[in-house]
Amino acid sequence: MAANKDIVVAFDLYGTLLSTESIAKELSKHFGEEKAQSLAALWRRYQLEYTWRLNSMNQYEPFSTITQNSLRHALADSSVSLSQSDIDHLMKAYDSLSTFPDVPPALKELSSASGITAVIFSNGTDKMVTNSATKSPDLGPHSSVFKDMITVEEIKKYKPHPDVYLHLATKVGKDKSDLGSMWLVSGNPFDIVGSRAMGMNAAWVDRAGNGWTDGLVQGNNGRPTVIVKGLGEVVEAVKKHAGQ
Question: How many CB atoms lie within 10 A of CB 190?
């Protein structure tokens, strides 16, 4: 639970702290580097697509199940296959994804930042997120900076469903009226737009430097509050926006 005067900053996990593309290293052991890169991208695409389709159908499957099923879909589309033992190994590797290079120094800085309550906020299951926070060689040493690890497993809906952001507020001791003072940090545009639709502030991590191109919602409500090039810029951007 956040201290009353602290700014709650919720960090997305997959695609923001952890690089889902880093799983390509494991895939390359089976298919070579070039094929592995395309497979990793397709796997991620179907993983997200499955969550959105389930939201639309008002249904839920655990993120671990979605992750395995989307891998099978990507393999089938690519006309390749893996044994169940190899798939199990990949799922285990998913619990120890690499962070983006800017993440460890940023979290080290965040650990000494005052006035901010940092939490992880993820589509992953409780077990997946806990494993990632403890088993990732890059993230594990810094996981204590997060006061809580909040997932969607309890409410059985995925980002960017509105209830997901209300759930976040509840878990940090806030309510709907407090969303405007809370922050989401994400590298995923769909998450940014979803949080903004609920009145939250949002920092989009634009590591590629391509600028904001998402056109789903026009106007300021469909854009991030701030755009940062890396995680190290987040604390300063949040405090500047708050007039600190």
Answer: 16
